[in-house]
Amino acid sequence: MTEPLLIWGAGAIGGTLGAYLARAGQPVLMVDTVAEHVAACRTEGLAITGPVEAFRQVVDAVTPDELTGIFSRIVLAVKAQHTAAAAEALAPHLAADGFVLSAQNGLNELTIAEVVGPERTMGAFVNFGADWHGPGEVMFGNRGAVVIGEIDGTIRPRTEAMHAALLAFEPDAVLTDDIWSYLWGKLGYGAMLFATALTPQSMTENFADPARTETFVAIGREVMAVARARGVVPRGFNGFDPDAFMPGAPDEAARASIAELAAFNARTAKTHSGIYRDLAVRKRRTEVDPQVGSVVRLAAEAGVPTPLLARLVELIHDIEDGRREMSAATFAALKP
């Protein structure tokens, strides 16, 4: 296929995908709002740094106002809170028989489907570690799960083609008929990552701290209870075992999963979550509302109590607005 794959958002996730696919010979065009980053990617190239692999790859890139043309395949890789605006902006460039694949965290497929239609929406779950370090550089910290699937569960030729394309980035990428099970699994793990960002400690230090294990277990249990109420059976990945956090599951299994998460994150150069970087490095608002806040909203609809998740949203907003610092005391404030 000579038509480029359009990647909307060339940050940690989109930039990593774009560099790898372009290096593999696939035509790629990236769109990003940071003009200096766009200029670097299309001239001297996007540098992928870190322990996985280091290389520099020139990738065609434009700012949104420079974009022209119609595309049949678009990967959306912006922060969750920008999904609706980005979907509106890319919609005029999406072919009538094309699709948008969400390479994001959260349930953004629901938002994308409202804008471009469910038949033009494809789901993806990504758990590799990467950070945008500045114009022209993304640090690829560790490999992680990559899963592709249609939101209605069917596997079509376009799904198989997109999965095949992404094998150039992640050879172990999975093609699934139940993408929601993976997305809900990531919501459980993701809620824990928001809790780690209440402190300045690394993800591993948080998960390995026995004094915090009970809180992480309780957070996981709240998310899994909502998933069960909605009829979803979440899938595990990279140390996160959703069954261990289901109502009635023994605490020993949940603690073992937390220990696995500590071990998994100890093997990455990405020591802190993207939430931490939003708060401490980039000084901007996080994805807490479209991720954890969405679970709280869906829990209320299902009649499932989620006091810890609601408190977690409040505390993240407190840090965003300067009312609290990232500290052990803020983490301790999670407990009722």
From TrEMBL:
Record function comment: Catalyzes the NADPH-dependent reduction of ketopantoate into pantoic acid.
Functional pathway: Cofactor biosynthesis; (R)-pantothenate biosynthesis; (R)-pantoate from 3-methyl-2-oxobutanoate: step 2/2
Gene3D superfamilies reported in the protein's UniProt record: N-(1-d-carboxylethyl)-l-norvaline Dehydrogenase, domain 2, NAD(P)-binding Rossmann-like Domain
GO cellular component annotations of the record: cytoplasm
Residues in Ketopantoate reductase C-terminal domain copies: 179-320
Pfam families registered for this protein in UniProt: ApbA, ApbA_C
Top-rank taxon: Bacteria
Catalytic activity field: (R)-pantoate + NADP(+) = 2-dehydropantoate + NADPH + H(+)
Native species: Acuticoccus sediminis
Stated family: Belongs to the ketopantoate reductase family.
Protein name in the entry: 2-dehydropantoate 2-reductase
Enzyme Commission numbers on file: 1.1.1.169
Domain (Ketopantoate reductase N-terminal): residue spans on this chain: 6-152
An annotated GO BP: pantothenate biosynthetic process
Keyword list, A-Z: NADP, Oxidoreductase, Pantothenate biosynthesis
Single GO MF descriptor: 2-dehydropantoate 2-reductase activity
